[in-house]
C-alpha cells in the first residue's frame, strides 16, 4: 500500500497539471471591456460626475499632500515634480514599472513610498492608509483617459509571465483560476454579480461594498479570499506581478481613476 | 476503478471534537470507490436528509451552489448563470453519479469550474483556515445527494 501511494500521487499530480493548463483563451483585444461597461446607469453616473464621485475626495486630499512639505528633507512632492497635471500625466498608466533599485517591478504605491523614504526622508505610508491611497488616487487621476502602457521588455517580461501563471493556475479550496472566471466566463453572473473581465483600469477605486477607496491589491485579495486561497500580504511581490500582468492584459485601454465599482 | 485512501489528521479530529461541528469541515476524508462515473456507496453508510440537503444547496456560505447554478428556489433572488439548472438532476443522474459529481467533478470533466467538494489533495495555495478540509463533510455530501435525487422535474 505504502509502496504504491507515491505513484498514485504522481499520477494525480500529472492529471492536475493537465487540468491546470487547458487552452485558456485570452480575451481578444477588440472584446475587452472595462468593469464600467458592466455597471448600471446609477453607478456609471456616479463615476462620470466628479461632484458625485466619492473618489474625488481622495484626489483632493492627495493634491493637498502633494504640496505639503514632509520628512527630514523638508520637501514636498511638488518641490521635485512641480505641477502634477503635466509631470504626472500618463505616469500611473505605466505602473507597475521596473525599478533598478530593487531589481523588480514596483507598483505606484511602492514608487510613492520610495520617494517618501529616499527623497523626503520621511516614514513610508502603510498600505491602504488614507494618505497613500490619496496620493495614488491623485497621481492616478492625472492619467485619466490615457492608454495603459506598462513596459513589455526583457526587464519586465519574467514578471509579466509570473503574473500570468498566477492568473491561470487553479488555487484555493475551490480549485478555481482567475482566468476561469475572468477570461472564460466574463459574460456570466456569479450569483447576482456580473463577473466582468477583471480589467484594472480604474484603480484606486471607490467601491460601494467597501464604502471607501481601495487599491487594486485590496481587490485582488477579495477574489483570493473568495477562492479560499492564500492571500499574500499587501505589497507582496506575487501581488505586484499579478497587477503587472493585469495592466499588460489591459494595454491600450483608457485609465479611469478614480473609478466607481459595486 | 480507483480506490482513494486519505490521511487521517488526528489533531484536527481532536480540535473538531473540542470545538463542536465546524461548518463544512470534516476532520478526515473517508475512502470511497469510484465505479464508472459514480460513487455507488454512501460516504457515511447511511442515506442523507433531503431537507438538510436543500438548505446546504441554498446557503451561499456552505454549499455555494447557487453562486453558479440556478435551481428550484423561488425564494432565492440572485442565482448564478455559470452552470446547468439543478431542476431534474435526479432524473438525469443516479445517486452514485450525483455523489461523484459533487465529491470531485474534475474526475468527470478535468476542465470543470465546479469545485471538488470532497477532495483535499492536489489543491494549491489553500488558505490556512481551509487546509486539509473538504468544502463539505461526508454527512453534508449525503444530504445534498439525497436532496438532488428528489429533483425529478
Give the gist of this structure.
Chain A is mainly alpha-helical. Chain A is built from 11 helices and 7 strands. Chain B has one domain (2-22, 32-150): Cytochrome c-like domain (Cytochrome Bc1 Complex, Chain D, domain 2).
CATH topology of chain A: Cytochrome Bc1 Complex, Chain D, domain 2
Q: Tell me what portion of residues of chain B adopts beta-strand conformation.
A: under 5%
Named at the architecture level, the CATH assignment of chain A is Orthogonal Bundle
Distance from first to last alpha carbon of chain B: 31 Å
Shape of chain B: globular
Spatially, the strands of the biggest sheet of chain A line up as 6-5-7
User: What is the CA–CA distance across the termini of chain A?
Assistant: 52 Å
What helical percentage do the residues of chain A reach? Answer: 40-55%
| SSE series of chain A | HHHHHEEHHHHEEEEHHE
What labels describe this entry?
heterodimer, A: 262 residues, mainly alpha, Cytochrome Bc1 Complex, Chain D, domain 2, 3-stranded mixed β-sheet, two-stranded antiparallel ribbon, 7 strands, 7% strand, globular, disordered N terminus, B: 153 residues, two-stranded antiparallel sheet, 6 helices, 2 strands
Question: Could you characterize what this model shows?
Answer:
The complex is a heterodimer of chains A (262) and B (153). Chain A has 262 residues and is mainly alpha-helical. Chain A has helices spanning 5-20, 41-48, 55-67, 77-81, 84-87, 108-119, 130-141, 157-168, 178-182, 216-226, 237-249; strands at 97-99, 104-106, 189-190, 193-194, 205-207, 212-214, 260-261. In chain A, 42% of the residues lie in helices and 7% in strands. In chain A, the strands form three sheets. Chain A has a three-stranded mixed sheet. In chain A, strands 1-2 form a two-stranded antiparallel ribbon. A two-stranded antiparallel ribbon of chain A has the order 3-4. In chain A, helix 3 crosses helix 7 (130-141), helix 6 crosses helix 7 and helix 8 crosses helix 11. Mean pLDDT of chain A is 93; it is low at 1-23. By secondary structure, chain B is mainly alpha-helical. Chain B has one domain: Cytochrome c-like domain (Cytochrome Bc1 Complex, Chain D, domain 2). Chain B has a two-stranded antiparallel ribbon with strand order 1-2. In chain B, helix 2 packs across helix 6. Chain B is globular and about 35 Å long. Classes of the chains: A mainly alpha (262), B mainly alpha (153). The interface between A and B is medium-sized, with 33 and 30 residues.
Amino acid at each position: 500500500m505504502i509502496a504504491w501511494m507515491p505513484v498514485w500521487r504522481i499520477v494525480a499530480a500529472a492529471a492536475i497539471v493537465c487540468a491546470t493548463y487547458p487552452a485558456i483563451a485570452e480575451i481578444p483585444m477588440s472584446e475587452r471591456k472595462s468593469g464600467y461597461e458592466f455597471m448600471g446607469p446609477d453607478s456609471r453616473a456616479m463615476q462620470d460626475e466628479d461632484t458625485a464621485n466619492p473618489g474625488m475626495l481622495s484626489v483632493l486630499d492627495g493634491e493637498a499632500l502633494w504640496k505639503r512639505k514632509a520628512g527630514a528633507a523638508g520637501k514636498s512632492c511638488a518641490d521635485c515634480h512641480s505641477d502634477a497635471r503635466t509631470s504626472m500625466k500618463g505616469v500611473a498608466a505605466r505602473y507597475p514599472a521596473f525599478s533598478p533599485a530593487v531589481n523588480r517591478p514596483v507598483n505606484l504605491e511602492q514608487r510613492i513610498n520610495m520617494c517618501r523614504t529616499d527623497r523626503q526622508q520621511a516614514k513610508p505610508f502603510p498600505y491602504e492608509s488614507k494618505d497613500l491611497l490619496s496620493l495614488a488616487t491623485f497621481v492616478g487621476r492625472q492619467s485619466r483617459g490615457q492608454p495603459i502602457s506598462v513596459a513589455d521588455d526583457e526587464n519586465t517580461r519574467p514578471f509579466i509571465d509570473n503574473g500570468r501563471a498566477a492568473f491561470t493556475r487553479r488555487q484555493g479550496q475551490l480549485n478555481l483560476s482567475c482566468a476561469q472566471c475572468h477570461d472564460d466566463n466574463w459574460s456570466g453572473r456569479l450569483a447576482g454579480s456580473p463577473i466582468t473581465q477583471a480589467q484594472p483600469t480604474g484603480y484606486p477605486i471607490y467601491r460601494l461594498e467597501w464604502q471607501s477607496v481601495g487599491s487594486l491589491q485590496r481587490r485582488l485579495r477579495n477574489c483570493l479570499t473568495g477562492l479560499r486561497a492564500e492571500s499574500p500580504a499587501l505589497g507582496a511581490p506575487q501581488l505586484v506581478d499579478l497587477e503587472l500582468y493585469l495592466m499588460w492584459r489591459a494595454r491600450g485601454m483608457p485609465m479611469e481613476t478614480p473609478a466607481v465599482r459595486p | 476503478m480507483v480506490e482513494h485512501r486519505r490521511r487521517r489528521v488526528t489533531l484536527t479530529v481532536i480540535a473538531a471534537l473540542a470545538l463542536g461541528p465546524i461548518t463544512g469541515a470534516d476532520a478526515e476524508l473517508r475512502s470511497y470507490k469510484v465505479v464508472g462515473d459514480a460513487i455507488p456507496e454512501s460516504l457515511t453508510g447511511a442515506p442523507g436528509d433531503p431537507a438538510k440537503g436543500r438548505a446546504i444547496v441554498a446557503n451561499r456560505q456552505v454549499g455555494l451552489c447557487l453562486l453558479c447554478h440556478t435551481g428550484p428556489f423561488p425564494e432565492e433572488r440572485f442565482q448564478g448563470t455559470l452552470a446547468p439548472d439543478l431542476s431534474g438532476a435526479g432524473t438525469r443522474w443516479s445517486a452514485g453519479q450525483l455523489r461523484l459529481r459533487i465529491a470531485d467533478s474534475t474526475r468527470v470533466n478535468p476542465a470543470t469550474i465546479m469545485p471538488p467538494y470532497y477532495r483535499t489533495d492536489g489543491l494549491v495555495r489553500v488558505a490556512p483556515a481551509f487546509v486539509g478540509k473538504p468544502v463539505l463533510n461526508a454527512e453534508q455530501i449525503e444530504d445534498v445527494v439525497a436532496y438532488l435525487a428528489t429533483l425529478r422535474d
